[in-house]
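Q: Start with the shorter request: fold the first protein.
A: Done. Sequence, then structure:
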Amino acid sequence: MNQRANHKVSLAYFSGLVSVFALLLSSIFSIAYANGTVYYVDQSAFGSQSGTDWDNAFLTVQQALNVAVDGDEIWIAEGVYLPSERTDVSDARSVTFLLTEGVEMYGGFPSGGSDFSDRNWEINKTILSGDIDNNDTKTDGITESYDDIQGSNAHHVIQGSTTVTYTNTTVVDGFVITAGKTEGGSGDGGGKSTGAGINFKDNASPVLRNLYIIGTYSENDGGGIHFFSNSNPVLENVMIENTRANDFGAGVFFLDDNNPTFSNVSVIGTLGRHAAGVYLNDRNTADFGNFYVCRNTSYDGANSNSNAGSGLSIANDNNIQVMNAAFSANVSGENGGALRMRSNNSVDLDNVTMSGNQAANGGGIYVREAGNDVTISNSIIWGNSSEIDNSGLATLNATHSLISDNASPFSGTGNVASTTSPFVEDPDNGVDNVWGGDASRVSDDNCGNLRLKELASPVDAGLNTAVPVDVVDVNSNGNIVETLPIDLDGKVRIHNTTVDMGAYEISGDLLPQTITFELPAGAQDGMLVTEEVTLDASSTSGLDVTLTVETTSVCEIVTMILIVNQRGTCTITASQPGNNEYEPADDVQQSISVSKNDQNIMFTSPDDGDSFTIDDVVDLEANASSNLTVVFSSLTPSICSISDDSATLLQAGTCTIEVNQSGNDAYNAAPAQAVSLLVNKKSQSIDFISPNDEATGSIGDAFTLFATTDSGLSVSFAVTTPSVCSISNNLVTMLTNGSCQIKASQAGNENFQAAVDVFRSIVVGSSSLQAQSITFSSPANNSSVFVDTSFNLVATASSGLTVKFVSKTPSICSVSGNTASAVAIGTCQITARQTGNDQYNAASDVVHTVTVQEAGLFSVFIPLVIR
């Protein structure tokens, strides 16, 4: 996906994200402020340029900034405006829009002007551009990526004076900010090297609202927005996209002792040498509400801070709360794809979703150093390269959250585990199959759709009392003491009595819908029992409508075809139950007068949903109430074929068998009946023939691998200890002392299930490692259990290392951790395995055999004595 396509997708998402707040914001700011003067700017005006009204508007923004004072407002019409105020008379690139304390600056008015209530900053784009030499690659005046910057652009598009203290009465609202490019490095104190989009140093607390910051580049920190210290700005409805910094904070940078507020902020597609998306250094207190962070990449660097925290990165002694936030497809080459922290931070994550984030350590969360306190509630951390890396031994407490398979190092209650994705669409790394991008930001990563599936385990699984207070006012109603009222989509935060985990509630404020259901012409005046008509119904939502027959003795519906069975009145109800976007529609009912009899069919065997295996032959039984002969047919002929009264199962899938009776002069055709049978693949197993599991070798030795399957399919090999040994085709070579672990796999095909992987160990340089052995104490070898029972597995290694268990016969018995389950009658074989470490050689596997017999039967085992 090229940069332009990326921009269009992201801007569409951001427009949807903030649209729920547009009406509120419009009403809040629609009353003109009477405390000061309003100055007008419209580059298409032809009047006196006095700025007193739209007809006589200033032609440039700087004209208005030069006369506005504390309490004044500047209203700016759509168009592209360039900065002209130099902060360094000797540097032509020091031109900027230099803000005045207490002045409120609003963009988004149509050319020619309008009232404040008619302002629309997303449609009437007011662009503040640093492309002062007018040679960037642009679309409609916007430099869409840092790679599109050409020539000598302004260092900072918007800048605060270093001698002024800015308060929340300074407002920048409704602009596209683009094409700033700083120069210099970290040694210049941030003068020209930081904050290519918006740059403040100390004591700056403006309100930055309704902004789209795109295509800016900082040689040092803060590619999009930069603050140094002692600042308390408000960021509200801000999107930062395709910005870059060669050090920290490609999207947003805060140094020390700041207290920013983030409400409805998105950071997408930034590229930073160190922390990409948002970076907070030391002693900051920050609140994030409705925070969307996607596809940010930390790409390079030689020290321990490099490639760290591509979504949100914090250094030391920060106090952070994040709520209603989604971190997706952020890529760090080293630590913390979504969130990285150093030392002594307090971090509170409430209704946060992290998925698809990538890092060598802690794809979701990485804790580098000691003293951190992390609280996670009502959140989902699932599907990252790894979920949590607590190398810094933080205090981690997670409650009512889904954190992958629940195996991360944390304490807490109410958590759920899931081995399947709860999301509508998982993030993915695109057609190039590579996460992240290089320095030119070539990336087609997909942020996914992290809204919840309807039956996912996080739905209605949160804790209402853990929903935080809306301290950032995500719905812009002025109430910062109410419980968080909405989710990241702007829907009601607690729906259906219990809050969902993660950033999105599966349903909230639902849209209305109606059903259109009219009878076809062939049914409006009544029907004969020999007639059929096709029904049609639709909803204004576009969701499928369900037709239900209320008078089943008179008529039935088969795949939208109405079949009348006997005399009476056929009544049909059209319904649409809604989903997480639409409320249920009112039912629509139609009635048809029917004049005659009918017959029906009963499918007696097999039962719907029964499970079989490829090549099975299944007897079919059905009868018609008319006693007429029924006919079976396969609706899935590639899965199963029919011959008379039997079905042959051909390949894996769902076999659907339909039975029909065509009727005669006395009876109408019977409604077809169908059963769906699950056809499973055949099982297969691997015989790992060579090397044996007690093989030893020395550095440089090579072993030929040989294994077969009872399916006849070929086996593939891989090493799981690449630091000890390497593999090429079927030859494994020993690289260093240790235990070389080799995995034999067979992935299956359309007819066979994947085989259970079989492992072999080759001890390399065994004389320098200690030997160990396994004592497999339970169950006893050659013992027996009943089918559908579970039993504990107990084994110890003389080394004290943990023993793992593997079922060699998964179709007979399965193993999960230290528990085995007997699933079918037969001979169950369970392997106890300890693969060793840097002190111990791998132990020899110990295999115990357990006979699984039918429940309720008593078997007498008589030893066989051979004389």
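Q: Next, the second protein, separately.
A: Sequence, then structure:
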Amino acid sequence: MEPKIRSLPWYRRWTWKKAMLRSMCLGIIAFATLAGLVHWRLRASLPLLDGTLLVKGLRADVTIERDLQGVPTINSESRIDTAFALGFLHAQERFFQMDLLRRMSSGEISELFGAVALPLDEKFRKHRFQATAAKVLNDLPEPHRALINAYSDGVNHGLSKLGAPSFEFTLLRVSPKPWRSVDCIHVMLTMLADLQQIDAENEIDIGLLKERVPSDVFDFLIRKGSSWDAPLDGSMMQQPPIPPEAIWSLRSEPDKQSSGVEHTESNPTAFLFPRKASEQRAASNNWAVGSDLGKDKRAILASDMHLGLQVPTVWYRAVMNTPCLDGKRRRLVGVTLPGTPTLVEGSNGSVAWGLTNSYGDFGDVIELVPVDGEPDQYVTPDGPKSIERFKEEIAYPGGSKKIEYEWSIWGPIVAKRDKRRFAHRWVGDDPRANDMLICDLETAQSTDSAIRSCNEAGMPHLNVVIADRDGNIGWTLCGRIPTRSGPPPRSPVDWSKGGQWSGYLATEDYPKLVNPKESRIWTANNRVVGGDFLSKIGDGGYDLGARARQIRDLLRNKTEFDERDMLAIQLDNEALFLAPWRELLMKAVQGNERSLSTEFMRFVQQWEGRASTNSVGYRIVRTFRIQVANHFFETPRAEKNAAQRFGSIPKRAGIKRQVPMAHEDVLWQLLKERPQHWLPSEFASWDELLLDAAKSTEKEMSTGQPMAKATWGASNMAEINHPLSMGLPIVTGWLGMPNLQLPGDNHMPRVQRPGFGASQRMVVSPGFEEKGIYHQPGGQSGHPYSPYYKSGYDDWANGNASTLLPGPTKYILRLVPQKP
């Protein structure tokens, strides 16, 4: 009889191969289950496209038709119902974007992203925007407040009809908060903060420079205007001479005083609208031609607003067939901003309008004069005042941080060091200067009435270019303009004995232009006017003017325009700005060709004169310009030299930020006259400096690849990503737009950089919207599962003329009032 074999326990019967195999199977099952749950959750958060919904609060039926690209057409019987429907759409398609926009100015980003966002929240909490927004909402006229309330109801109803919150909230493991009417005001304040410096860093930096150098040197570096200027009134500024050696010299012993003021980082909304340092001065273009030049005697408007590019796109396209606040029914066509209920830019059939940042000066920095022996008091025209202190607590996952801010009677203390305090008097901190009256622009019936609506609206300070159905064109500013006792100061001032603002400019005193003789109007963040009007607007850091001049000249080159002619100007990438630099490079290497490679010289000679994707020559010339500027302002060596020459001015202070990019004339004046006392001490001659810049250019262009592959397109690749990509790089490829090579650059009409450029392009003639053109760098939906998540991106990148009006209807959603 054979012995009985005892059965081994299960854990001894498994071989390591079986164990591994079963573990892998269990892992696959677990992963598949998790992926399935995530997939279900993502699909559940897709917006509703078809069907009928019963809705409380609607006055009448509303239909929402979408085309293949997801562009909605809202058909309603009241502006209130239209606002509700728009809020519903924004919530379904873009709520995470809206949430970021409201959290930015309210200082609540840390609640989503943790302690890493605390510096950003602290910067915004300093301005107490929550109190400002509440006051603005409370003071709105009843029709405008009702519009916002209806929009907010629509947002919350749209949220309630999603099967799951937007996928971003799922990944961040937070629940979205309901939308409040006051959040619409926060969105507008966030946009204002992106267009202007909320803490006046430039003005403080310029003040530091002014303290360190003779007045002639300061006026030479921080000049009033540029030879590139192309203002509408034709005014030009006389450029200052180079200060002689007896006044100041780069090659003499430097003054080593300390500046005593701490510099703060600029562009606080880079989190939402990311842009690189070299791109911060670029912004937007708009122009119009009157009936004398427009085809079929039509006025035509073109506009492309430049912002940091991201996913989803900044703007949400919409068509609204609706009665407006004046009771008249109109078709509103253009773009809306998620978080607000109005048409931001577009056409109402009678009037079309486009926007660019004005770069005027709408804030002053005041250095507080301390009271002797009282460190917490300062001098005012009404006697000593005490510093006010406000305490805030910023919550974030796992903790909170308590902070305290100081305020003066003029505004928040935005910078302090040692015993010096700097306050900022800024329109953004004044509830009277912020409202939603831009809604009234929807009701404009002519250029004149549109200008009046713009002048009465409290909103970001923008150039508004207008065209109407009768063939008229015009320009003006929107936003409150301070009235001062003199021209806006460019550096900190002392208000202890007076000099405060006396209020805001009357609407009849606003600068404006209607139907100029040449029937052309253009703006591109440049100085638009001079004389008395400039003394009211001030200079908040105008763009160089090269874009504006190129647009002006292209408009003057033709006597008739249609929509495609206007698009061609938007897409123009001719490198007129860099042409002089190419000539300078050719002269710099003349006689020294052997010190540079034959390949380098060949590409310099094959200069195409355009920022095209296949151009090596363009990239060489562009790099050469930067290398020349680096010898003065950008390299660590130059920063060290600048600190020695001007005192311990912080990085990115006045000379570094203002001269190489914004004031090209400073460099060219030095390069043409070549004064020895302005030559950096490491060079024996200007020729040596330029040759060194050429050699540095070749070295940079040759790094790691053949020069033939160092095209402009290889450097200018689109980087349009979702905000979550910064914290979760693994999702970048899934959520981002394709990394295509982009033609265009700064200082030309086609402004296109990897993460910055035209957030939209629009060409429209009011009343003839079917002929209009529209581009957008991404789709309507912020959901990656949406069939139109990336719709329109290729047309934007390649410059294809796509239609402004939606195409044939693909989906229909009906909102029906629910009976009590």
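Q: Describe the second briefly.
A: The CA atoms of residues 203 and 491 lie 5 Å apart. The radius of gyration is 29 Å.
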